[in-house]
């Protein structure tokens, strides 16, 4: 009998060092991180500059030197502008217009999007095409007719003059229709076979699956109404009735300020806070809604 010589199995332990492919992947990752960091700094810097200007006496326009933080930061700009101008009324008006207008507009968009996506009726395609055509009509074309309608209704210089004409949001209806095309028709038919009416089917079956859609509509609607300038400028006339963007425009020509930019930056800093809060609350559903709508 011959003895069998046992040979050790070849080692499978990876040799020290990294492959060229791994090094290239790591280099690309670092370059991508650096590029995204640079873009993030460029995006955030105007917000930082606004806060610095708000904490600088008179704003940074008073000094020819460039600095990233004032030597003696102060809240004097905030105190002065809030004491001399009805800024709290402006913020309240903007909050009323943005919240009520967004809530009503979301309801209209959900209902119209559901009807265009799930109902079959004559002229549906033509009606939807007409909706989309209105996106290409600039607001300057409809400004005078819309103002005449609001004036005939006696709504000039009231929040409803800003809220009612913006209830029909074509972009919101488009997003709602695209999202609801993905709701299974079998689910709706099953609810109808179980005896549920149209309203109950919508509120109990369709609406619970539209959380991401509602987040998208709320963020876009609130942002557009909070930042809207032209239409509120036309229909709001009294200083107490203005919204924040229109009120900001009055500060630049206000003789009460020797240099208005500190006051402007102070009000702008406060006005950004509601937008950040709304975005942070609906951020997750906003991303999900945009992603699902784009895929469909």
From TrEMBL:
<dbReference type="InterPro" id="IPR035906">
    <property type="entry name" value="MetI-like_sf"/>
</dbReference>
<feature type="domain" description="ABC transmembrane type-1">
    <location>
        <begin position="91"/>
        <end position="282"/>
    </location>
</feature>
<protein>
    <submittedName>
        <fullName>Carbohydrate ABC transporter permease</fullName>
    </submittedName>
</protein>
<feature type="transmembrane region" description="Helical">
    <location>
        <begin position="30"/>
        <end position="51"/>
    </location>
</feature>
<dbReference type="Pfam" id="PF00528">
    <property type="entry name" value="BPD_transp_1"/>
</dbReference>
<feature type="transmembrane region" description="Helical">
    <location>
        <begin position="201"/>
        <end position="223"/>
    </location>
</feature>
<feature type="compositionally biased region" description="Polar residues">
    <location>
        <begin position="1"/>
        <end position="16"/>
    </location>
</feature>
<feature type="transmembrane region" description="Helical">
    <location>
        <begin position="261"/>
        <end position="282"/>
    </location>
</feature>
<keyword id="KW-0812">Transmembrane</keyword>
<comment type="similarity">
    <text>Belongs to the binding-protein-dependent transport system permease family.</text>
</comment>
<feature type="transmembrane region" description="Helical">
    <location>
        <begin position="160"/>
        <end position="180"/>
    </location>
</feature>
<dbReference type="InterPro" id="IPR000515">
    <property type="entry name" value="MetI-like"/>
</dbReference>
<feature type="transmembrane region" description="Helical">
    <location>
        <begin position="126"/>
        <end position="148"/>
    </location>
</feature>
<keyword id="KW-1133">Transmembrane helix</keyword>
<keyword id="KW-1003">Cell membrane</keyword>
<feature type="transmembrane region" description="Helical">
    <location>
        <begin position="95"/>
        <end position="117"/>
    </location>
</feature>
<keyword id="KW-0472">Membrane</keyword>
<keyword id="KW-0813">Transport</keyword>
<feature type="region of interest" description="Disordered">
    <location>
        <begin position="1"/>
        <end position="26"/>
    </location>
</feature>
